[in-house]
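Example 3.2
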Amino acid sequence: MVEWRWVGREVRPVPEPWATPLVWAAAYGGAFALVALLDALGVLDRTGLALVALSLMAALLGMRGKFLAAPGTALLCWSCLNVLGTEPTGEISWAGNRDPGWMLCLLAATVVGTVAGRVLHARAAYRRITPYGGSG
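Structure, written as tokens:
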């Protein structure tokens, strides 16, 4: 007897989230590299562009991480932007009108990325346990 199967419908393993220290290491290294790249391109004086770029990176890291990693990821991205992207360079500072918004934006991006990652992983898990095309 011949059994027909769709080629694109094979079972795929559900991806496991990265360990929190790995996400944090990637966040720090990525934020440092991204801020350095923006500085080399001469666009670091527009901190809004750097914030958007770091938020996208944080969201991508959030897709691979756990919810536990979200606050640390946001804090590491903010610290790189604060220390390297604003005056005085090389010193951590707190601007009450700017920094809470930056931290909230980075945290929101990380949480949105984590939620999106969890939804995609749940969808993959559902596909893994649900048979395709059963005719009852």
